[in-house]
Amino acid sequence: MLSELNETSDTVANPDGTFTMTRALRPVRVKQGQGWSPPDSTLQAKGDALAPKAVTADVSLSAPVVTGSLATYPEVLPGVDLKVEVDIDTVHEVVVVKTPDAARNPALTRFELTIPVRNGSVQKDADGTLHVIDPQGNEKFSAPPALMWDSSGLDVDGRDFVHGAAPGGRTAAVGESLSGTKLTLTPDQNLLSGKDTVYPVYVDPEWHDNYCTWCGRNHYLVEYACGSTKTAGDSQWDNARHEVIAFIEGFYNSVRLHSGLGYRTPMEVLDEWFANQQVA
């Protein structure tokens, strides 16, 4: 049923008059013009900039060094790179501090990032969660509180640290302040230049597109209860929600190894599943 088709679900009419809906955790198709395309976050030239081929967000990047869907802006400061990876429904924007000498740069005590919002505004919760709001008041993107991590932990060989810390790796919260679309980050200096820190160190504000048909939010595995009567502003619910998000995103989905999954994380299994779907 084309009228019920969206990024994450498909509904078919059965011969007996019933309907069957199939839902995916993340987008399995992307609307482009009047049709649908398979998700593809590979960056390609678009005018004087770069843009992913088919994702849920309107993203464009100035010309960096590109590998697949990863754009690297090398040496934005001595010994510091900026990496931007566009996934199907997520943008990883990571400041990479490569050496102890780079970590001692006073410019890393605090630094600014511009949030490229078009026709909208940015709001920040008390815990650092960011929301991009369109002129109609709808939340279009969200970012959990900024986090930083080093290259320590288990199974670090070949690990893509752009996506997060290794199991057992050191992490720390990042201070945030917002003025208009200027986001100021204050890295934790104990982790940035501590004696036990393993470099590179990564500082990450991560953005998720909001695509749930029913509630307009991005569940990204488990974040919000779709259809909940609670809303942002209910402080007791918000506090509990943020604690749950921090545990699920920061540990359960991305770090904890599950014996039932062959001692892998849910995110690793999910990424493998999506890769197999695209091959199929």
TrEMBL record:
Spell out the residue ranges making up region: Disordered.
1-20
UniProt superkingdom: Bacteria
Q: What is this protein called?
A: Integrase catalytic domain-containing protein
| Source organism (scientific name) | Kibdelosporangium lantanae
